[in-house]
Write a structure and sequence with these properties.
Largest sheet: 2 strands, antiparallel
Number of strands: 2
Number of helices: 11
Oligomer: single chain
Shape: globular
Radius of gyration: 19 Å
Length: 258
């Protein structure tokens, strides 16, 4: 259902370009599809993790992209591979506030689908590692049409951008799934997704570049991928702190008997 509804906007982006209402509506197709699916099978959307959960996970979610961006771009600039220009917005506070709000609204549409519905349903069936891999593969493949046929992650050839993006999204899914399952809420993933888009694409991406910047930093950057793999491994090492939500066959039989 998600891919079917998204095809409408894949086509529009391929023929008329990205941006505007097309990006907004595309990012909300996972939410629409998840809500429809949940209403059909469960007659409810209560299991999406609407409550915000503990504040510490929301703080971690917002600040993690800032920390990783400082590390990634710090290496990029200090190594001499890129040039720091210092071109910050004229009103940085306003840019951060408005940028955070707009990016979180966009991210909410995806995260209702991916972490509000998909991850909790996968958690009933399999382990954290497979939850992260499966949800990451679906999330990455959903992006592929706008990479291949439109201008998302443009500037590098597909033989480079597709595998780097694919591995990067799966890596990011470990962090997103961990925060979702640990907090019992979709909001840390929403905030992390929005914050990552803001700081990696808009704030740090505008502070400087170089001839190799598209290959080293950003969503098709190898430096970004390496740092995120390390961060994801740290979260993976704490997988034993997550609740085991898998449903046993005896529980399924009990449900059927009722």
């Amino acid at each position: 259902l998600t891919f079917s509804l998204s095809t409408i906007f894949y086509y529009l982006m391929a023929t008329t370009g990205m941006g505007g209402y097309k990006t907004l509506l595309l990012m909300w197709m996972p939410a629409v599809s998840a809500i429809i699916t949940s209403l059909i099978f469960f007659r409810s959307i209560r299991g999406f993790g609407w409550a915000p959960g503990k504040i510490k996970y929301l703080v971690i979610a917002y600040t993690l992209p800032i920390i990783t961006s400082i590390i990634i771009y710090g290496i990029f600039w200090l190594s001499g591979l890129g040039t720091y220009t210092g071109k910050l917005p004229n009103n940085l506070v306003m840019a951060l506030v408005l940028g955070s709000i707009s990016n979180i609204i966009l991210a909410l549409g995806e995260e209702i689908g991916w972490r509000g519905f998909l991850v909790p349903q996968l958690a009933k069936l399999t382990t954290f590692t497979w939850i992260s891999i499966i949800s990451g593969i679906i999330w990455a493949l959903w992006h592929f049409p706008v990479i291949i046929f439109s201008t998302y992650v443009s500037g590098t050839p597909l033989w480079w951008s597709l595998p780097i993006f694919f591995i990067g999204v799966i890596t990011f899914s470990f962090i997103m799934a961990w925060l979702t399952l640990k907090s019992g809420s979709l909001w840390p993933a929403v905030i992390l997704h929005g914050s990552d888009n803001l700081f990696t694409q808009e704030i740090f991406g505008a502070l400087g570049g170089g001839d190799l910047s598209l290959y080293l930093v950003g969503e098709s950057g190898i430096l970004t991928l390496i740092v995120m793999i390390i961060v994801a491994l740290i979260f993976w090492m704490f997988r034993d702190r997550l609740p085991d939500l898998r449903i046993s066959y005896s529980e399924k039989d009990d449900d059927k008997s009722h």
